[in-house]
Design a protein that fits this description.
heterotrimer, A alpha+beta (103), B alpha+beta (551), C alpha/beta (170), A: alpha+beta, 5-stranded antiparallel sheet, 5 strands, globular, C: 170 residues, TIM Barrel
Chain lengths: 103, 551, 170
């Protein structure tokens, strides 16, 4: 499996780094202050491949706090930072189905 | 079912302690994720989109009521109140916290339940026929052998770091309900010409990116030799399976690249050197395992008790009875399937409350035993026919009596993009919409047996390749699209389905399924001609025409 | 990298000899398979201990003619996930009755110690100091074993049967 740091990084627009919190698996976003937040609105935005690679590298280095960091697209609009694809929307907002019990 | 003894429990407890230590070392940073990942996978811990997922093994699909209550307890205490039963007779919890996992596993260990080897490049849960031990005409109970294989494969020092995952399935019936032909090793218990019982051994079956139907490597391996034979296969695979490319690492690729004859040669060269060694099974060992399986003391009962005859006047009960109750080898009893496919619901899920209720009903009506099938339904395997009306009322009350078993709304679906980080597209909403379109039971009965399988990605956890109708989620330009195949089968006549045409977008899938079903109804020779047989007779073209005429 | 033998960290008497280094007249050396097979008699003619480092993608059969004269065989785990050396170890111990030192090298981590011991390894070039120090404790993690290997432990199958009086089971 290629390390995310060696993979070719292509940015097609504003992007963030996201991962899961080690202890409980919660969805987290890399912040500009070298930490993690559960809120997408706190995420650091990168717009070039170099910046993305750097942000990813520092995120991956935090092996204790976060698992599986990768670069994800976002959209920036009137409502602020929004998920840039369905997968990130699901990660941010939860499953799209009605569960048998309330989540 | 098998009664764990002190030795079995010790292994599970020692495993829990080991994992507790591993989790602590991970959280403290002493273990990197790279070092930890394989270890957590070997305890069934995945990272999914939102959270960790815990996959718990239900060996050969057999559960006691006590164990079911423990599953409910974990759902309630450590998760969000429900669990998902999978196509490999396991249960999955979707919201587990890593830090709490050791406690959850300790709670399960108390009833002999664990997550050992439900993931990772090792030997996985050995699955079997959910009607094992109670189906009429079975050669012998395949679960005895599933248990022998489970013990053989648990913490096997040589085969815990295989090139890739390894899955066994075993059946002892003519009609294969365990899909053995799409497993890495499939075992079919049968009698040879001399009347001896033994195993037909198949290798190299599997779905995913490169689906294959398993090939017979040996028509008949006797009881004595089965473990050494299996070890020879695994040893050849461990040494020569590809490790350079995870998409070519399964044994099916090795078998395909060598050819079955050369592969058999390699295996039997190895086997001949070990068949008289420590793995040769003698009768005492086999009978010891067999003696630990509990079988109910059946009463002598009538097949047509008055309670049943009376209740059959209720059309709802009758519909359920005809659909969900199967013949039992013991007169006066029936095998009851509990549908976990309510209309509009996520297929294969059960709430903690449902699990507790089912455990109580198992105690009352099924000698405390429950089964999990790979079609993601449950079963109560030993129900007296006179109890069926009372049982039905109870099942109906908790929502597991939808009379749709094996029908169009009895859909097998993987969790898909709602949960799984491997997925390209969602599968559950597709299933839900299809069940809404075919909600009418009369329509569903008119259509007859029809297995729809949905996978959210090419890894095929929904077994779409072998669905009568198979639906595969793909991604095109950021949108969810679905490829549809027809004519697949998972049973003793296993075959892969064929593509109907180009992929269709998310909101058209249910329409397409309706069109396919309409085409079948129009084209079938008679009502008894099953969908899958009509497809075999007609080929894909007539269906393709109907579906793509206006698209 | 600490060497563990007999459940404790020990001084390694063997030196890993580079392929282009001269074969010393004495001292215990581990040589690569390639170098060894190029001239096995030369290496074996020394009066001192010799071990061969065998790659995990090569059948151990080729080493058979020399096994009786080797003090040690070192097998390789290039990454801990690559489990081919477990098969090699079992073949060497159980089929070919190798009695010398069987050494695990490569990415040798704590959580594989028990598997390695069961497969027949008795020496470990352990990657992490803390893992080496924990070896004795980790080796006792499991007390019940299902499968027979060459390690002589009684399997669960047989432990159960041993509790049976003769001929009781019907």
């Amino acid at each position: 499996m290629t390390s995310p740091l060696q993979q070719k990084i292509k940015i097609t627009g504003p992007s963030i780094v996201t991962a899961n919190r080690t202890g409980d698996g919660a969805v987290i976003y890399r912040t500009p202050s070298h930490g993690w937040s559960v809120k997408l609105s706190d995420a650091a935005i990168v717009r070039t491949a170099d910046d993305a690679r750097a942000l990813l590298a520092e995120s991956v280095a935090d092996d204790v706090g976060a698992v599986g960091a990768y670069i994800a697209p976002v959209e920036i609009g009137e409502d602020g930072i929004q998920p840039g694809n369905l997968r990130e929307k699901i990660r941010q907002q939860g499953v799209t189905i009605d569960l048998l019990v309330s989540a | 079912m098998y009664a764990y003894d002190e030795l079995d429990r010790t292994i599970v407890n020692e495993r829990v302690l080991e994992f507790r230590d591993q989790v602590a070392r991970r959280l403290s940073g002493e273990l990197t994720e790279d070092e930890f990942k394989s270890l957590r996978l070997m305890n069934g811990v995945y990272l999914q989109l939102h959270a960790y997922m815990l996959r718990i093994a239900i060996p050969y699909g057999t559960l006691s009521s006590k164990q079911m209550r423990a599953l409910a307890h974990v759902a309630r205490k450590y998760d969000r109140g429900y669990g998902h039963f999978t196509t490999r007779q396991n249960i999955q919890y979707n919201w587990i916290k890593l830090a709490e996992l050791p406690d959850a596993l300790a709670d399960l260990a108390e009833v002999g339940i664990h997550g050992m080897q439900t993931s990772g490049n090792c030997i996985r849960n050995v699955t079997s026929d959910q009607w094992a031990g109670v189906a009429p005409g079975e050669v012998e109970d395949p679960r005895i052998w599933a248990e022998i294989l489970r013990q053989y494969s648990t913490l096997h020092p040589e085969f815990s770091f295989l090139p890739r995952k390894f899955k066994f399935a075993i059946t002892a019936s003519e009609h294969d309900r365990a899909a053995i032909k799409v497993h890495d090793i499939g075992l079919r218990i049968h009698r040879n010409a001399a009347g001896e019982t033994g195993f037909e051994v198949l290798v190299g079956g599997g779905l995913g990116r490169t689906p294959f139907i398993g090939k017979t490597i040996n028509e008949f391996v006797g009881h004595r030799d089965i473990l050494s034979y299996v070890e020879a296969i695994l040893r050849v695979y461990n040494q020569y399976g590809r490790r350079d490319n995870i998409y070519k690492a399964r044994i099916k690729i090795l078998v395909h690249e060598l050819g079955i004859e050369k592969f058999k040669q390699e295996v039997e060269e190895e086997w001949v050197q070990m068949r008289d060694g420590a793995l040769a099974l003698d009768n005492a060992e086999i009978e010891d395992i067999r003696s630990r399986f509990f079988y109910p003391k059946y009463d002598k009962l009538s097949d047509t008790p008055d309670e049943l005859k009376k209740a059959l006047q209720n059309p709802n009960f009758e519909a359920w009875y005809k659909n969900s109750v199967a013949e039992h080898k013991q007169p006066g009893y029936g095998i009851v399937t509990l549908s976990l496919k309510p209309v509009g619901g996520p297929p294969g899920d059960a709430t903690a409350e449902q699990m507790d209720e089912i455990a109580d009903l198992a105690d009352k009506y099924s000698f405390g035993e429950i089964r999990v099938g790979h079609e993601q339904n449950l079963a109560l395997p030993h129900v007296a026919r006179c109890d069926l009306p009372a049982l039905w009322r109870a099942l109906d009350r908790i929502g597991v009596a939808t009379p749709n078993v094996n029908l169009v709304t009895d859909i097998i679906a993987c969790p898909g993009l709602d949960y799984c980080s491997l997925a390209n597209a969602r599968s559950i909403p597709i299933a839900q919409e299809i069940t809404r379109r075919f909600a009418n039971h009369d329509t569903a009965n008119l259509i007859g047996r029809l297995h729809i399988n949905i996978s959210g990605c090419i890894n095929a956890c929904g077994h779409h390749h072998v669905g009568h109708i198979g639906i595969l989620g793909v991604e095109k330009n950021g949108e969810e699209f679905y490829q549809i195949t027809i004519g697949g089968r998972a049973d003793e006549n296993a075959v892969l389905g064929n593509l109907v045409g180009p992929a269709v977008p998310f909101d058209q899938v249910a329409d397409v399924i309706e069109d396919i079903v309409e085409a079948y109804l129009a084209l079938r020779q008679r009502p008894q001609e099953l969908f899958v047989d009509a497809v075999k007779r007609l080929g894909v073209e007539p269906f393709k025409e109907r579906v793509y005429a206006t698209r | 990298m600490p060497l563990v033998k007999g459940n404790a960290i020990v001084v390694d008497e063997f030196v890993h000899l580079a392929d282009d280094a001269e074969l010393p007249a004495d001292g215990a050396v581990l040589v690569s398979a390639e170098r060894f097979l190029a001239d096995p008699e030369k290496a074996l003619s020394r009066k001192d201990k010799l071990g061969v480092i065998w790659p995990n993608n090569r059948d151990v059969d080729d080493l058979l003619p020399y096994l009786a004269r080797l003090t040690a065989v070192a097998l390789v785990f290039p990454v801990f996930r690559d489990g081919r050396a477990y098969t090699q170890a079992r073949l060497l111990r159980e089929r070919y009755k190798f009695r010398g030192e069987l050494r695990a090298t490569g990415q040798v981590l704590r959580d594989q110690f028990v598997f390695m011991l069961r497969a027949g390894f008795d020496a470990f070039e352990v990657k992490k100091q803390s893992d080496a120090e924990a070896f004795a404790v980790v080796a006792k993690r499991y007390s019940v074993f299902y499968q027979p290997t060459g390690d002589g432990r009684v399997t669960a199958f047989h432990r159960r049967l041993m509790h049976l009086p003769e001929g009781v089971r019907s």
